[in-house]
Amino acid sequence: MRLRRIEPSQVASQNRPAVPSEVLSASAQIVEDVRDRGEAALREHAERLGDLEPGAPLTLSPTEVAERATILPPSDREVIDRVAARVREFASAQRRSLADLDVAVLGGRAGHRVAPVESAGCYAPGGRYPLPSSALMTAVTARAAGVETVWLASPRPTAATLAAAHAAAVDGVLCVGGAQAIAALAYGAGPVPACAAVVGPGNVWVTAAKRLVNGDVAIDMLAGPSELVVIADETANPGTVAADLLAQAEHDTEARPILLTTHAPLQDEVERELDFQLASLPTRATAEAALANGFSVLCVDLDQAAALSDLIAPEHLQLSTRDPRRLRVRQYGGLFVGETSAEVMGDYGAGPNHTLPTGGTARTTAGLSVLTFLRAQTWLELSDPSALIADTAALARMEGLEAHARAAERRR
Questions:
Q1: Known catalytic residue: 316?
Q2: How many other C-beta atoms lie within 10 A of the C-beta of residue 394?
Q3: I want to staple 91 with a disulfide (CB 3.0 to 4.6 A). Which of 53, 78, 141, 341 is the partner?
Q4: What is the dihedral of CA 34, 130, 313, 317, to 10 degrees?
Q5: Residues 213, 262: one domain?
Q6: Is 315 annotated in the active site?
């Protein structure tokens, strides 16, 4: 059986920590070394871990990025440019929806200004399957938010990743991955500037490093191995359900595909389809390993399926039901409404971002968007503060802060 069958009561026990403690400890040593010694430590770790050949350049300039991207066939570059345009269009629409605020308050006016951070470091995985799409999702979105300086880090960047970097108009590419890359983006190393925000998906080492630098810089989220929950009823096509589960499973051996269904025969039908589709899948070994992390649950009704999905709070939630808009689901990174709204089309640039929270963190955070790079900076301008003085001074004295009270009373 490809997917373990478990009872609804067992779902809560299946959740996993975003970062194993041993990886966090080892990553901390790398992060601190790069923070303390800068470019020298960055190069040492990059060469030791196989990102760089000894003496190879750590970074590429925009001109070098453009030159190396030309290796990619023109038809592939056109695909990347089209996806970049769709991501940019959606992110720009999000940015336009966020307005500055100017309202009357007692004694004057107040408001906020929506402003981008000045710099962003974006990460695109370059391991088993290099992900140029992640370069587009992160760097294009940062630009749409108005970020002035944008760098991309990716180990052993392919021509496709560099074409994506060029489409996003990055200021430079760091040819390094892992915890050392995150540390360089956060604290600066050689030509790589210290960035105000560090974003993007990666393996557990990247995730651990992002957790460590959080607070010194802004991060988007702790994005670990990919997850998909499919909620399906008797109307779902078992072949399509299996295809969606395998699309997530082939990401990584640690990925987690999950099926919640109200239709008992669908479990067997999906199992048969998994066997059939795996037989011709080039990524079969990875997908099979990932299927072992997943599970299938037979639910009494769609309300229970929705409740179990909320308990998992998955990265991706696919609704393959008769009337998907009627499902009351609340906890997810990205929602795909109806069987025709394939999650993979979200991965590859339909518009919304594919950098999404995993490991249950969707309960408290959303996916990457222009909001990741923006701050609502408040302001206050009082032309007549007299009506506020008494309350300000009284509350200050309740807290034992006499200097606060006196500063207010000087405005009489």
A1: yes
A2: 11
A3: 141
A4: 160
A5: no
A6: yes
91 & 172 share domain:
yes
Q: What is the pLDDT of residues 290-318, one digit of tens each?
A: 999 999 999 999 999 999 999 999 999 99
CB neighbourhood size of 66 (10 A): 14
* Tokens of residue 296, six digits: 């299938």
pTM (two decimals): 0.92
Using CA atoms, how far apart are residues 386 and 393, in angstroms rounded to an integer?
11
Q: How far apart are the first and last CA of the chain?
A: 78
Residue 149 CA to residue 120 CA, distance in Å, equals: 6
Last residue in a domain, options 202, 219, 236: 219
Catalytic member of 227, 271, 315, 343: 315
pLDDT of residue 386 exceeding 90, the answer is yes
Domain that holds residue 117: 21-219
Q: How many domains does the chain have?
A: 2
- Helices 21-37, 204-213: crossing angle, 10 deg rounding: 60
Do 11 and 25 lie in one domain? The reply is no
Q: Which two tokens stand for residue 83?
A: 């996806």
